[in-house]
Amino acid sequence: MPNIKSAIKRVSVTKRKTLRNKMVKSATKTALKRFDTAAAAKTATAEMLSAASAAVDKAAAKGVISKNAANRQKARMARELAKAE
Fold first, then answer.
1. In terms of Cα–Cα distance, which of 53, 14, 63 is closest to 32?
2. 53-74: per-residue pLDDT in tens?
3. SS (H, E, C) the chain
4. Distance between CA atoms of 58 and 75, rounded to whole angstroms?
5. pLDDT of 20-64, one tens digit each?
6. Are 53 and 35 in contact (CB under 8 A)?
7. Spatial distance between the Cα atoms of 43 and 65, rounded to a whole number of angstroms
């Protein structure tokens, strides 16, 4: 445990940010997994794609994942949807 006041504050701020990032990343992974299971069962729809894309975009906007990673994930999902139809 740090002794300096600013270091103590950094620990608490980091803990808060880590918790937020975990929540956002978990929600994103859940949306991706929902879409992937639907795509595997050939029941994926455009609405499911847009919901998963929105979750990915939110994570990118909050800085949890990079913009390029978000675009890559959305492109992969779009390809899966096209293949499923």
1. 53
2. 999 999 999 999 999 999 999 9
3. CCCCHHHHHHHHHHHHHHHHHHHHHHHHHHHHHHHHHHHHCCCCCHHHHHHHHHHHHHHHHCCCCCHHHHHHHHHHHHHHHHHHC
4. 16
5. 999 999 999 999 999 999 999 988 889 999 999 999 999 999 999
6. no
7. 27
Q: How confident is the model at residue 84 (pLDDT cuts 50, 70, 90)?
A: confident
The token duo for 74 is 């959305």
Enter the DSSP assignment of 4: S
Structure tokens given for 83: 């293949």
Tokens at 11, concatenated = 């620990």
Residues in the chain: 85
Q: Is the pTM of this model over 0.90?
A: no
| Cα 48 to Cα 34: distance, rounded to the nearest angstrom | 8
